[in-house]
Each structure stands twice: as C-alpha cells, then as structure tokens.
Amino acid sequence: QVQLVESGGGVVQTGGSLRLSCAASGRAFASYAMGWFRQAPGKEREFVTDINWTGDYTTYADSVKGRFFVSRVNTENTLYLQMNSLKPEDTAIYYCAGGSTKYAGGRYDYWGQGTQVTVSQ
C-alpha cells in the first residue's frame, strides 16, 4: 500500500508560481512511477505529468509543457511539481498518484486527497 499527501496549493495571481509537494509512505518510493493529475470544477480529471522511478524520464500534457516541471527525491520520499507562468485555466484540485510499475505512462493505483490551486485574474 502507498499513502500520498499533497501540500503547497493556494491562491496565486496570473503569471505567478507555486510548488506542490507530495509525501509518500508505505511501499518503497523508488519502486514506482509517480504522476500529477488535476480536476477543474465541472470537468473530468486530466493528466498533467508523470515521472519514472529514477526521475530521468518525464512526460507532460501539452497544456503545461514548458511551464510545469516534475521532479522527485527518492531519498526524501517526495514528489514535486513546480508550476510557473500560471494561468486561470490551471485552477483545479491537483492530485498526486502512485503508479503500478516503475515506468511512466502506466496505470495509477494510489491517490492523494488533493490540494487546491486557484489562479486569479
């Protein structure tokens, strides 16, 4: 089992930055890929980015490429999401997720409770 707890959400103005964190416990952190997803009001949850077990392979949704950057520190059991040049359309609840394998792009079986990010005009 994997337990995930997100933090770092908040309210920021358009163009600002935030860094989200996800603390993991349970199964060995370096044994699975990690991802970030988000869900805006009235919309389905969507993929944002993910990262493989070593942190040397990442993928991003087109909507965040060049603005968001995912990283992980396996010795700290922590996943990060650096979000820059934020736009109002980035407003959502952001969830971190633990993968079923070491590789990005697979199924995600474990989910945190989410952290709210609000980008004001």
Summarize the structure in words:
By secondary structure, the protein is mainly β. Helices cover 0% and strands 53% of the residues. The chain contains no helices and eleven strands. It has strands at 2-7, 10-13, 18-26, 34-39, 46-51, 58-60, 68-73, 78-83, 92-99, 108-111, 115-120. The strands form two sheets. Strands 2, 4, 5, 6, 9, 10 and 11 form a seven-stranded mixed β-sheet that branches. A hairpin with an 8-residue loop joins strand 9 (92-99) and strand 10 (108-111). It is globular and about 40 Å long. It starts with a strand and ends with a strand. The mean pLDDT is 96.
The helical percent reads: under 10%
What structural class do the secondary elements suggest? mainly beta
Provide the residue-averaged pLDDT: 96
Strand segment tally:
11
The tally of helices reads 0
- Envelope shape: globular
Straight-line N-to-C gap: 40 Å
Biggest sheet architecture: 7 strands, mixed
- Low-confidence runs of at least 5 consecutive residues: none
Radius of gyration: 13 Å
Which percent band covers the strand fraction?
over 45%
Order of helices and strands: EEEEEEEEEEE
